Amino acid sequence: MTAGTKRDVRHAARARRRELARGTDPAAREAAAVAIADAVLRFVPEPCRVAVYESLPDEPPTGRLVEALLAAGHEVIVPIVLEDFSLEWRYAVPGASGDDATVRRPGHGGHEPDADERQRWLGTDALATCDLVVTPGLSVDSHGTRLGQGGGCYDRALLHRDPSAPVVTLLHEGEQSELDLPADAHDVPVDGYVTTTGRVVRLR
Ligand SMILES: Nc1nc2c(c(=O)[nH]1)N(C=O)[C@@H](CNc1ccc(C(=O)N[C@@H](CCC(=O)O)C(=O)O)cc1)CN2
Ligand SMILES: Nc1ncnc2c1ncn2[C@@H]1O[C@H](COP(=O)(O)OP(=O)(O)OP(=O)(O)O)[C@@H](O)[C@H]1O
Questions:
Q1: What is the pTM (predicted TM-score) of this model?
Q2: Which listed residue, 27, 116, 153, 165, has the most CB atoms within 10 A of its CB?
Q3: Which Pfam families does this entry report, sorted A to Z (predicted)?
């Protein structure tokens, strides 16, 4: 049985996420940040390159994860969305959190990069060089179908991934879908997910 159309399921998943975020106090969010960092660190025992994202206030928090990865000697890259919904990548800065460049395209409320900034970009194919890819998502089902924010950004970006590098989505505990999520041909399945309680589920 499927959960409904992408639009409807996304709408419901966003509402559920807002509710979950409303019920999460700063201490619980900090505990979730630590649980995520501990769980994801176990995927990368040796120093390597990891793609993460800068979380927005309702999303599973990634700030601690970025700091823990950097402290363990990993290279960490994070995305910026471009005009055509492809993702550019840059090195993560400790302490940064999601802003306009995270989910708004330049010219659509997003940040206009200057030449200096563009020079530091790593390319839209930078996932090819990563040993682990951590993605955002609203839900994941038992086949690894991921429901995102609807830009198709990660579907495009994941085409470049190294197939031997695991792709894991961060979810709030309870956001995984028991029903099959709607999937299109362009959807790239993920290998597992990590929840805000530190639960790791490998699907493939
Ligand atoms: N923290 C975080 N970073 C992330 C994602 C995410 O889900 N979370 N993304 C996951 O894919 C990518 C960005 N995804 C996007 C999805 C939709 C739109 C979009 O439709 N933007 C509209 C403006 C929307 C608004 O005003 O609210 C636009 O640019 O016209 C942009 C980016 C990359 N970075
Ligand atoms: N590889 C691709 N090349 C071109 N367009 C694509 C590609 N993948 C997805 N799209 C387009 O992006 C749009 C959004 O796709 P979808 O609803 O699957 O996004 P999503 O997976 O929820 O978002 P995201 O990947 O940003 O988290 C669709 O119109 C789809 O056709």
A1: 0.96
A2: 153
A3: 5-FTHF_cyc-lig (PF01812)
